[in-house]
Amino acid sequence: MMIRVVEASDLLEVLQIEYAVFKFPYPPDLVNFLYANYRETFLVADIGGIKGFLIAIYDEEEGHILSIAVKDDCRDLGIGKALMGHIMSFLREQAVPLVRLEVRKGNARAISFYESMGFRRTEHLPDYYEDGEAAYVMIKHIR
Known about the structure:
The protein is an alpha+beta fold. The chain has helices spanning about 10-20, 30-35, 80-95, 110-115, and strands at about 1-5, 40-45, 50-60, 65-70, 100-105, 120-125, 135-140. The chain has one domain (about 1-140): 3-Layer(aba) Sandwich (Aminopeptidase). About 30% of the residues lie in helices and about 30% in strands.
C-alpha cells in the first residue's frame, strides 16, 4: 500500500469513493478546491487504484480532518489507520499541537476507530449535518 499526496488523475476515483461512502458527499467543486489549495494534506491510499483518501487542513493551532473514506470492499485492511498515521506524522512535523474532526453521533464504527487512534470526544454539536443528525467533535493532542 502506498500513501501519497493526491494527483489530478486521482480525483475521479476520490469522488467515486466520496459519493459511494457518504450520505451527503462533498460536491466536486469543493473537492477540486481542496485539491488546488491543500494538496500536501490531501492523501490517497493507492493499491493498484485509489482505495481510500483523507483530506485535512491545518494552521499553527490545529489540524482539522475534513474527510476520510475507504472503499466498502477494502475496509478492515488498515487503510484508514495508514492514512491517519501519515497525516499525524505530517502534522507533528509542522509542530501542530492537536487534531480535530467531526463525526456523526450515530456512526459507532467511526467513533470506535477514532478512539482507537487516540481521539476523544469533546463536544456535542446538535443538528450538525444536513439531515439534522448531531456530531461529536473529537480531538487528539499530538505534541
